[in-house]
Design a protein that fits this description.
The complex is a heterodimer.
Chain A (H helix, E strand, L loop, with lengths): L12 H20 L3 H23 L8 H20 L5 H30 L6 H28 L13 H21 L7 H16 L7 H23 L2 H24 L4 H6 L23 H10 L2 E6 L1 H5 L3 H13 L3 E6 L9 H8 L7 E3 H4 L8 E5 L8 H4 L18 E6 L19 E5 L2 H14 L2
Parallel strand pairs in A: 1-2, 1-4, 2-3, 4-5, 5-6
Helix pairs in contact in A: 1-2, 1-9, 4-5, 4-8, 5-6, 5-7, 5-8, 6-7, 8-9, 11-17, 13-17
Chain B lengths: L1 H22 L6 H12 L3 H10 L3 H31 L17
Chain lengths: ~475, ~100
């Protein structure tokens, strides 16, 4: 009987060399992704590493039949290409979550198969350590699988994006996780308890669903990053199980990447991991005792706003997810062009959590052909705000709310914001005076220097562009 | 046992390396970063191929087939999509008044 560990203990030299080369190429790939100028080379290095590793694997003597390998590889390619070519940029978060889900599924399946193969044919593999790591692999793999599917459903709005909560939710989740861990530990201590393995795998899947259920749409950037980390770590655990160092390296790189991104996202919302996962942010937010008095705002039409914009010397546009929902990014690009032509210096200020996944807003603007050297991170743009003539906010709300700086009672208190209120004047394109995601009113709209531009983002920006063009 | 310790060394070193490399990635590129790391971690494909190729029993073959399909989908869509996203990132055409923006180096 061939054993699976041919992939490890007694690798042919050729395979070992290809795996080493793949590990180096993967590291270079991520290193080159640091800056836009070398980023595409990074993709190339990654692809090369992948091809080399697959080639090294296919020559392994333990492989007895290629029929199903070829069929499934072709099938995967046939599904993968359309996904890559046709996914609209607004849907990249969904596709990313889906790929985490697939990654988790693959790792989980291999883990389950390994366990039963060991049981049937390779009893000597059933050591406490091996089974323990295998349980970790299956737990992470399957909870990433179902959790990410839930994230896909939320992002695609197949199920409501608002947090779904019920009484005692956290307790039930903890009990479930507790049972899963207990089963895992039991299996580790006594690897012969085969009948515990499937309940364990099912527990992991149920926990994945319940973990994501209470998380709201605006927390998706953190959740996707966290699931990314889990997917990587599960691949790394698989490397331990198969004793494959290249797999450990690749999985760990993915795991640390997801970890860093989720830390960045948490910081950008001034929240902790536990708060994101168990806090069910932005659910009821009972009327925050906001004074009900009707405060007046100044508003303007497109022509008037266009007049102001083209007469100033610099403008910072702050886009939010609302811009993407309105599909306004191409009109925003036209506005950028029109204003630049008039000699106005236009920059974009981008909050880390703008969009539905880390860096999403940059991709949406880049797709609309806005040069990336015009896109500035929050920390870069904030010092320039006091010297800015107009801050134009399109489809963003909470990330511009000055209450985050001083109002301790506000749910977003402490969250870093883009300091639009420090600009000489502020314009806000908004459908109505409805509160933002967090359900809180934005002080900004009532300031004397603020001008509200009511309307659909796409239509309003188009009107402004027209007004500027007619102004020749 | 020694291989376990060896692997733990690899894991620890790779974690530190990963943290150092990823920290330097510009926030501009966080979305392509995620889709690229995704494609790279789909290297679990090699484990799936071995499992499927060995044909130990029906269960392992079925699970192996699912795993190869899922990983291969990630590999193909991950790399192609990352490249498609990166192609969109363009600098300003040099003909426009080129003033170096202050806080970018």
């Amino acid at each position: 009987m061939n054993n699976l560990h041919q992939v490890s203990s007694s690798l042919p030299l050729f395979t070992s060399v290809t795996y080493l080369a793949a590990a180096v190429l993967f590291i270079l790939s991520l290193k080159w992704l640091n800056t836009p100028s070398t980023a595409r080379r990074g993709v190339l290095a990654g692809e090369l590493g992948m091809i080399v590793a697959i080639a090294g694997t296919l020559v392994l003597p333990s492989i007895e039949s290629f029929k199903w390998i070829i069929i499934t590889l072709l099938l995967g390619t046939a599904v993968g290409i359309p996904i890559a070519v046709y996914t609209p940029m607004t849907a990249v978060p969904q596709r990313t979550a889906l790929s985490h889900s697939f990654g988790g599924l693959a790792v989980g399946c291999v883990g389950v198969a390994e366990f039963f193969v060991w049981h049937a044919h390779e009893h000597e593999k059933l050591t406490h350590f091996n089974v323990g790591v295998l349980c970790l692999e299956v737990l992470l793999g399957f909870l990433t699988f179902t959790g990410s599917l839930m994230a896909v459903a939320k992002l695609q709005e197949l199920i409501p994006t608002r947090p779904m909560t019920y009484k005692g939710q956290n307790i039930i989740n903890f009990i479930l996780l507790g049972i899963a861990i207990l089963l895992g530990v039991w299996l580790t201590v006594d690897p012969s308890q085969t009948e515990l393995f499937l309940p364990f795998a099912v527990m992991a899947m149920i926990f994945g669903v319940l973990l994501i259920l209470p998380i709201g749409g605006a927390d998706m950037p953190t959740v996707i990053a966290l699931l990314n980390s889990y997917a990587g770590l599960s691949a790394s655990a698989m490397g331990f199980v198969l004793n494959n160092k290249m797999l450990i390296i690749a999985g760990t790189l993915d795991g640390s990447s997801g970890f860093i991104l989720s830390v960045i996202m948490c910081k950008a919302m001034n929240r902790s991991f536990t708060n994101v996962l168990f806090g069910a942010f932005g659910q009821v937010v009972a009327s925050t005792g906001e004074a009900k008095e009707q405060r007046s705002v100044r508003s303007a039409q497109a022509e008037e706003a266009a007049e102001i914009l083209q007469s100033c010397s610099n403008v910072v546009i702050v886009p939010g997810y609302g811009m993407a929902v309105a599909q306004a990014q191409h009109k925003v690009r036209e506005l950028y062009d029109a204003l630049t032509k008039k000699g106005v210096d236009v920059k974009f200020g981008i909050h880390p959590v703008a969009g539905r996944m880390p860096g999403h807003m940059n991709v949406l603007l880049a797709e609309a052909d806005i040069p990336y050297d015009r896109l500035f991170e929050m920390d870069e743009i904030n010092p320039e705000m006091p010297r800015t003539d107009v801050a134009l906010i399109i489809g963003a709300n909470d990330v511009t709310n000055p209450a985050a700086r001083y109002d301790k009672s506000s749910p977003i208190y402490g969250m870093p914001i883009i300091d639009v209120d420090k600009a000489n004047s502020v314009m806000v394109i908004k459908r109505s005076m409805n509160a933002g995601f967090a359900g809180i009113q934005n002080e900004l709209y009532f300031m004397d220097k603020s001008l509200m531009l009511f309307g659909d983002a796409k239509g309003f920006v188009a009107d402004m562009v027209k007004a500027i063009a007619e102004n020749h | 046992m020694s291989s376990i310790i060896e692997n733990l060394y690899i894991f620890v070193l790779a974690t530190f390396l990963g943290l150092e490399i990823i920290r330097r990635v510009s926030p501009l590129l966080h979305t392509p970063l995620m889709s690229l790391t995704n494609a790279i971690s789909a290297i679990s494909l090699v484990g799936s191929i071995v499992l499927l190729g060995e044909q130990v029993n029906t269960l392992s073959t079925v699970l192996g087939a699912v795993a190869v399909f899922a990983s291969m989908t990630n590999v193909v869509s991950g790399f192609l999509l990352t490249d498609r996203i990166l192609k969109m990132f363009k600098k300003r055409e040099p003909k426009q008044n080129e003033q170096p923006s202050p806080s970018k180096q």
